[in-house]
Amino acid sequence: MAKIAVVGRHEDVLCYLAAGFAVYEAANDSEGISRVRDAEVDGCAVIFLTPELSHLALSLEDEFAEKLTPAVIPLPADIGGVNTGSGLLKKYVERAVGADIIFRD
Questions:
Q1: Is residue 103 part of a domain?
Q2: What distance in Å separates the CA atoms of residue 101 and residue 27, rounded to the nearest whole number?
Q3: Is 20 left (phi over 0), alpha (psi -120 to 50) or beta?
Q4: What pLDDT is stored for residue 56 in this prediction?
């Protein structure tokens, strides 16, 4: 069975352990990229990025775009009035499904 992972700061990823997700702690961008690659090697089919690291999805997009797995998906959140991750998530859903089925803008 494929695993689901969450990459982010220690305090942000602990709650995902209770749901059975694989957790990869990353304090900064370079650690985040390294942990995403670790999760791929460990066989994770879906890798979620916490809002603080959601911008990394753009830098990893070319690397993972042609692969079936893993899917690297930013978790949307409103941080200081800036809605991080939502635009990326919308783009990925539209590409996968062919239409905006979540945000319906």
A1: no
A2: 33
A3: left
A4: 85
Distance separating alpha carbons of residues 34 and 7, to the nearest angstrom: 10
Q: Report the domain count for the chain.
A: 1
**pLDDT tens digit sequence for 13-63:** 999 998 899 999 999 999 999 999 999 999 999 999 998 888 888 788 778
Q: Return the residue matching tokens 């995403």.
A: 36
To which H or E segment does residue 24 belong? Answer: strand 22-25
- Mind listing the pLDDT tens digit for each residue in 60-91? 877 877 777 888 888 877 655 555 566 666 76
Retrieve residue 27's tokens: 């304090």
**pTM of the entire predicted model:** 0.77
Let me know if residue 104 belongs to a domain.
no
- Residue 105 is assigned to a structural domain of this protein: no
Q: Are 72 and 79 in contact (CB under 8 A)?
A: no
